Structures are given as C-alpha cells and as structure tokens.
Amino acid sequence: MRHLIDPMDLSVQEIQEMLDLSNDIIANKDKYSEVCKGKKLATLFFEPSTRTRLSFEAAMMELGGNVLGFSSADSSSATKGESVHDTVQVVGCYADVIAMRHPKEGAPLLASLKSPVPIINAGDGGHYHPTQTLTDLLTIQREKGRLGNMTIGFCGDLKFGRTVHSLIKALSRYENIRYILISPKELQVPDYIRTEVFENNNIPYQQVESMDEVIGELDVLYMTRVQRERFFNEADYIRLKDTYILDTKKLKNAKEDLSILHPLPRVNEISTKVDDDPRACYFRQALNGKYVRMALIMKLLGLEVE
Amino acid sequence: MNIDSITNGIVLDHITAGKSMQIYHDLNLDKLDCSVAIIKNVKSNKLGRKDIIKIDQDYSINLDVLGYIDPEITVSIIKDGETIEKKKVELPEKIVNILKCKNPRCITTTEQGIDHIFKLANREKRVYRCIYCEEDQKTTN
Is the ipTM here above 0.90? Predict the structure, then answer.
C-alpha cells in the first residue's frame, strides 16, 4: 500500500506518470467520471483549510466517489483526546483513502504507520504539502511544456514557506534549472536548502533582495506572501515591502512568456491588475490542483481507465 | 585498588571518563540484582583516563544505547572466567525511545504511546533526525 507523505517519496518517473494522468483527465473528463464509484475519501482536517480540502473533495466527486470527514479539530474526536493513530484506524474502517491535514509535523507519517488505507498528507504544519508540489509541477509543465532548462525565481518569504522548500527539492531532480531567490535577508531559504539541495548537487543559485534587477531573466516566477510580522524591524519592512509586490509596472521588464505562480491565498503581493495578464497562472494553478489530486487518488487506489 | 574479576558477566571498557554513571542509569543497571562495579578514572594508555563497568551476570545489553552514548566502548562477554567475545559498539543507524524530539511542532510532543524514533543523519557530526518531523538533533555526548 502506497501513501504520499513527502513529495520526494515519488520518483521522477512516478511524478511524470501522475502528471500524464492529470493531463489525460483534463483532456477527457467524462472518461474518468465514474472511476471511483462506490469509493470514499475521508478528509481529516485537524486545522482549517479552505482550498486544499475543497480541492480534494471536488476531485473525489469528479471521479464519481463520495467524501466524508471534518474540517477542524473542534468537530472531531481529537477534542476528546483521541490519538492520531486511533483516529486513522477507525476512519480506515469507513473510507478507502484518507487526506489528512494536521498542525503537528509528522502526523501524517505517524498515521501511515497504522492506517489500513492510503494516507495523503494534505499539509503537516510547516513541514510538507506534497499535493501543492504536484500542483506546482503540473502547472509549470503545462505552462512551459517542460520541467527543466529554465530560470525560476522564488519571491517573498523563502524561510518559512514550505511550498517553496518542497518545490525546490522536487525541481532539483530536473536538468539545467537556475534558481534566483528574491527575499529580504531575514527570510532567505534555510541553510539546509542551500547546502543539501544546491551546493551538494552543484545547482546554480543566486540570492537577491530586489525583484526589479532580475525579473527580466525569469521563465517562471513563484510568488509568496511576505508577512509583516516576519521582519525583525519596521524600517526594513517599509524599505523592502514594495519590492515583493508584483504589479503591472514591474511586469513590463519581464519576458513575454513568463509564468507567474502563487500557491494562494494572496493578500496584496500580486496586484489584482496582474490577474488579467495572460502570464498570470495562479488561478489555472488552483484548477490544476484538483486534477492532480484526481490523478493521485486514482494512483493510490490502484484504479485505471482503459 | 582491586576489583575482583568476574566469572560470568559483562565488562564495559574504554568508557570515556565521567560517563559511567550515565550508562549505569540509561541501561537500567540499578534494576539488576547482581553485583555491578563502576570504576571511575582508571589510567588508560589509549584514553588517558577511562571508566569501566563490570556486571556480574549474563545480561542482554542494549548495544544501541551504548553506541549512542559512547561509541568508543568495548564490550567483553565473560564466561567461566574467559573472555569469549569482544564487541566494539558504534553509533547506531536507528535509535528507538532513547531520545525525545525537541521540536515543539512535532507530533511526538502530543501523541501518547508512540515510539520516538531517530535515524542517523550524519555520522561524523553525530546528528540524528526525528523520523516524524525530520528535525535534526545533535548528540551532546
């Protein structure tokens, strides 16, 4: 039985199979509309999340399956003190696959050690969020037609942003990618990403503080939110905050075929005026999230369509 | 100072000086009902000073605990007054319920009744990684 806990659990070939299946689902939706008939997905969300949970539920419904679950720990037996491993053993009696979000890091891994059905990590604290990584990979491949040979910029909070860390690690297995990391000094990527991912693998990267100086070099720009409370002092925040806001003026210097991604939710780091620019991919990215989750559910349940 | 040699039992030699009491506690040697000798600060050609523990009965020793606390230790199994086996311990690849994860965001801080498992992440730097949250923990030994 397979689980998906860490995006690196999947080989490059398995990821490609997942992306191929996602693309086939997008092209032939009717073909997949009953593949999960009679199957149930349990969404165990011990902390609230709108997009991820709804995306999982929509994915299962579009496959013809049913969903059950809870959307916060308050409405689960966790309030009575039930352990994660008891919860999954019980829910495993009722559902065929479980998507779990938990505020504690490692909770889905612990669940997978006891669960009678496949576990999908739908986010564990600041640790992993593998279905977001699969969504990002599908979006880059669909927008660029490839998953290598490009310059990719990551902008914003690169220290605490788990989606950034996961995507950097996943992309490190593809050829000829140059990374430009745009963030204030306080929010640069953690040391382990620099040493274990970039330096140990001789992957070229560059750290800059301003988006303006590099935006023209980028094929993909992955935006994240910079939260005011992450800055050590107000003066730095005021000095730097505008450099992390993408607007139409900054985009004038960008390539015609730039792809702008964002895991969402957005606050103000991308001006709403950018939404109409064809280079803005983030709403298509959210849609891709549903399709890649459909592919994942099928793979973990061992289901195929001729 | 003389400590009698043992007939059947175990000798833990080349313990880094000062660590014998920790080993005594972590191996739960205080629960044994046989004689246990702790010899501290013995002169050693190899280490300068070392500690030695002698356990006067056959005993299934947890080599992982020993390797984690002090990988320099040698373990001698004594039978009928003869050394029948010498074991060199080393840092174990995996340790179970020896360390507790210090990451307050880790599931092990709230979930009861589970094994606390760490895997060796860097032998040279003696770093162990929690299998759940993957936070590194450097051994202080």
Answer: no
